[in-house]
Structure formats: C-alpha cells, structure tokens
Specification:
By secondary structure, the chain is of the alpha+beta class. It has a domain at about 65-160: 2-Layer Sandwich (60s Ribosomal Protein L30, Chain: A). Helix content is about 30%, strand content about 20%. The protein is elongated.
Length: about 160
C-alpha cells in the first residue's frame, strides 16, 4: 500500500503575505486620501493699510533698468546706471540690489551653457567694479536665443542700501 502525503500545515500563513501587503497599502491610501481631502481653504489675508507716517525720502526705490550690451565696458554700464538714476529721481549711488543677466547664444552652433557663461563673465566683471555699486547685488544668470551670441541683456533693480 502506498503512503499518503502528509497534509499541509494549517498554520502556514506564507500564502497570505500578499494579501496582507495589499491590505496595508489600501489602509495607507485611505489615510493619505483622508488627510488631503479635508484641507481647509486658505484665504488671502490683505496687508494692513500703510501708516500715515511720512517717508524720509521722496525717491521711489525698487526701480528696474534694462539694457543690452554687445561688449563689456564698465564705464558705459556705469554711465547708463547714473543716467537712469537721474531720470528716475533716485539718489546718485543707489546700489544695484538685483541683476538678471541673460547671455545670448545661437541654437544651431551653441548650447544654453554658452549663453549662461557669457552672462556669468559679465556678472563677474561687474562685481569687481571699483565704484562698489554692484558689490552686494544678487544675480540670476540665464540664456536666450533671442539675443545674438555676442550680446548680454541686463536688468538691474535698484533699492535702498542694506545694513546687513
């Protein structure tokens, strides 16, 4: 007579491991959906009206000047800045607090890195200017095919001197 194979153990839960993983995943999904479903709508809080205290200066800070330069000339840039400050009523010597520099490149022959490099070199030359007008400016470097490969467009933002 042949012996019968022993019956499988009833205590073996290895076959249920996949179902347990699926249940755990389902529970986490329900918790996630519950937390994002009941997010309160954030309302815009308006800024309080400005005080009636008079300003000590009549100059309106945070003006922006944009120019496109074919080659770097520190005297040309500084003359353009001084002319802009006079025309906008800013005190002479108002520092540039932010500069957005965009280097041009040709998409067929060059990459965006070439335009970024042109803008970076322009920024470094500005930072080393003896006047100190560009010493503490923050810069953003970018590139564009809308400019020729020898051009750099700059947008200078003027603001009050910082005490930092």
């Amino acid at each position: 007579m042949r012996r019968q194979a022993p019956a499988a153990h009833d205590d073996d839960v290895l076959g249920l491991a996949g179902w347990m993983y699926a249940d755990l995943f389902l529970a986490l999904m329900v918790i996630f959906l519950a937390t994002i479903s009941f997010v309160p709508a954030l309302s815009h809080v308006s800024v309080a009206a400005p005080s009636s205290k008079k300003s000590t200066t009549t100059a309106d800070y945070f003006k922006a000047m944009s120019r496109t330069y074919t080659n770097f000339s520190l005297t040309q840039v500084e003359n353009d800045v001084y002319a802009f400050q006079r025309s906008e009523g800013l005190p002479e010597g108002t520092p540039v607090i932010f500069a957005h520099l965009i280097g041009g490149y040709q998409s067929g022959n060059e990459s965006t890195t070439d335009g970024n490099f042109r803008a970076l070199v322009f920024s470094q030359k500005l930072s080393s200017a003896a006047s100190g007008m560009f010493a503490s400016m923050q810069t953003h470097i970018d590139s564009s095919t809308d400019l020729a490969s020898n051009q750099v467009a700059v947008v200078f933002t003027f603001g009050p001197k910082s005490n930092l």
